[in-house]
Design brief:
It holds the Pfam family DUF6914. This protein is α+β, with helices and mostly antiparallel strands and 180 residues long. The protein has three helices and eight strands; from the N terminus they run βββββββαααβ. β4 and β5 form a beta hairpin.
Length: 180
């Protein structure tokens, strides 16, 4: 019998507070467990893969882009507004899956050109994962992935602004399933 508590791979959408748009990253996480909220003993049980340019000048992000793999706790990330499910993996293979994801994602090319963004990298990363058989999506084109992800995140932002969405537990972070 298979493992029912499968790990998830998400496209994570983080709001940027007063700045427009979202930070796009890939997030490998265990299945949500209820009532893990606000438990300060919760460890960083997720792995985030992203492209960042964390250096700031005058409130704007500048500086070179760089690939980052980091251990995180998705609930303690106050800006995570939406998750797009891309794949599920047997949790007993967690270390092997994370190693394989890292090996593929660290090779996703990026530039230092002005058109480079975390969104461009995340969409390229999803394409690499599809080409390597780790992800199979019902949302077929890059443009459709982008449009539907932004629409989903925008909807969650409106719900939060209207106080119809309150995130008090990791399971409260909205998920849209793009898997085939």
């Amino acid at each position: 019998m298979g493992n029912k508590d499968k790990d998830r791979l998400y496209l994570a959408m983080d709001h940027r507070y007063s700045a427009p748009g979202y930070h796009w990253s890939l997030l490998y996480a265990p299945k949500d467990k209820k009532k893990a909220a606000r438990d300060t003993t919760v460890v960083d049980d997720c792995v985030r893969f992203d492209l960042t340019n964390q250096h700031q000048e005058h409130g704007l992000r500048v500086g070179p882009w760089w690939y980052r793999k980091s251990d995180v706790n998705q609930f303690q990330n106050a800006s995570l507004i939406a998750r797009i499910m891309l794949a599920k993996f047997d949790s007993s293979s967690r270390n092997e899956v994370i190693a394989r994801l890292h090996a593929l994602l660290e090779r996703v090319t990026f530039t230092q050109e002005p058109a480079q963004t975390c969104r461009v990298w995340a969409l390229d990363a999803i394409a690499v994962l599809e080409q390597n058989g780790l992800v199979k999506l019902k949302v077929k084109t890059r443009q459709e992935i982008q449009q539907r992800a932004i629409e989903f995140a925008d909807h969650q932002m409106r719900e939060m602004a209207a106080r119809r969405l309150v995130i008090e537990d990791v399971a409260d972070i909205p998920v849209s399933d793009f898997r085939e």
